[in-house]
Design goal:
Layout (H helix, E strand, L loop, with lengths): L5 H26 L21 H13 L15 H38 L1
Helix pairs in contact: 1-3
Length: 119
């Protein structure tokens, strides 16, 4: 095994990709709030992430806020801008945590490489 924990970086990259996809889906939902026949979209992170830090974080978020799979869950008549904005705020918080985790991992890798180079 090398010095760089690629699996941690890959999991965090997957998490950021999924957060981005969810933000796009929520934006589409807001734009189509009054579109007749529009079906709401969302992203369920748990079906895409393997075990690891990122999926444990998402499991905690799903326990607290609930998960919604990528699907058509309701018609436009049940879709509210307020609900979608609340989900966007949750997504923003998840993004901040994911970025901090990635930053921490990069800092740890830099430290390990510096120790290895000096040792």
């Amino acid at each position: 095994m090398g010095l760089i924990p690629i699996n941690l970086i890959n999991n965090q990259q997957k998490m950021l990709d999924l957060i981005s996809a969810r933000q796009e889906a929520l934006g589409d939902n807001i734009v189509n709030t009054h579109t007749v026949g529009y079906k709401r979209k969302d992203v369920d992170f748990s079906q895409y992430l393997n075990s690891g830090t990122a999926s444990n974080l998402e499991a905690k978020v799903c326990e607290k806020y609930g998960c919604a799979p990528i699907s058509s869950t309701s018609g436009g008549e049940n879709l509210t801008t307020e609900d979608e904005l609340a989900l966007m705020q949750q997504n923003y918080l998840l993004y901040n945590v994911a970025v901090r985790q990635l930053s921490s991992t990069i800092t740890e890798i830099k430290s390990a490489l510096n120790i290895s180079a000096n040792g």
